[in-house]
Amino acid sequence: MVPLVFIMMGAFSFALTAQNSQRGVVQAAIGTDMASILSGDVVYMYPEFQKGTVMFKDKTFAEGDLNLYLIGSTLHFRDAKGDTLVLKDQDQINMVSIGKDYYMRFDKAYVRILNETDNVAFGIRSILIFEQAQKVGAYGTVNNTSAISEISSIANLGGTVGTTYLKSLKNIPYVIRHDGMLYDGTKLYMATRKNFLKLFPGRKDEITQYCQTHNVDFSKAGQTLALFNYLVQ
Q1: For residue range 17-38, what is the model confidence (pLDDT) as tens digits?
Q2: 119 contacts 1 by C-beta, under 8 angstroms
Q3: Are the C-beta atoms of residues 119 and 4 closer than 8 Å to each other?
């Protein structure tokens, strides 16, 4: 396997805090920019911008006040005037450090690295996703039969950067999802049982026994991190 190429500048925090999926509903007026109606503590990974370093694929570096924007998974920074801007050339980024956390850029998303060995690493990919909208009727009543086609205008938020507007008053359910990920130096995998077996060959009996004993739910990042830590201890 290809060795990992991460440059680590500090200690990992192996504990997952508040990394379960978070759900909410926001009501949007006609013509509202979806990004503007959600509070900063929802759309950003951190409540405040933090000092950080960006390492590009060409080995150059940049420093500044950084934060991860969860709609579309993009890196934002504050300029000298205090304005919030989107960092250009996101796909040319290799690694990012924000505070004490470290991320790799892969497949148009940022993955926070929590633990690693010489051959495989475990990380968390966090992203905000909008779900099916609900029409808001008279006196705030909700029509649960609204067609999926009615939210086509916001379906692109998971993968693109830009302003998206709603055409009518709706309740918009959203979820902030935290996915456990495995990385072997070249490819990123979801932290499923199948991929644990793939990346830890010869450990099938241990993985099976651990999963049975701890009733592992592979949809929960904290439980898959615990399995990873067990296998690499």
Answers
A1: 445 556 666 556 555 665 666 6
A2: yes
A3: yes
What total number of domains does the chain contain? 1
Contact of 179 with 221, CB cutoff 8 Å = yes
Residues 60-88 have pLDDT tens digits of: 999 999 999 988 888 999 999 999 999 88
Q: Does 3 map to a domain?
A: no
Q: Is 27 exposed, middle or buried (0-12, 13-18, 19+ CB in 10 A)?
A: middle
Query: pTM to 2 decimals?
Result: 0.69
Q: How far apart are CA 13 and CA 47, in angstroms?
A: 18
The answer as to whether 43 is a domain residue is yes
Q: Is the residue at 9 inside a domain?
A: no
Torsion of CA 210, 211, 217, 219, to 10 degrees: 80
Instruction: State the Cα–Cα distance between residues 207 and 39, nearest whole angstrom.
Output: 40
Between helices 221-232 and 204-214, what is the axis angle to 10°? 140
Residue 13 domain-assigned (yes or no): no
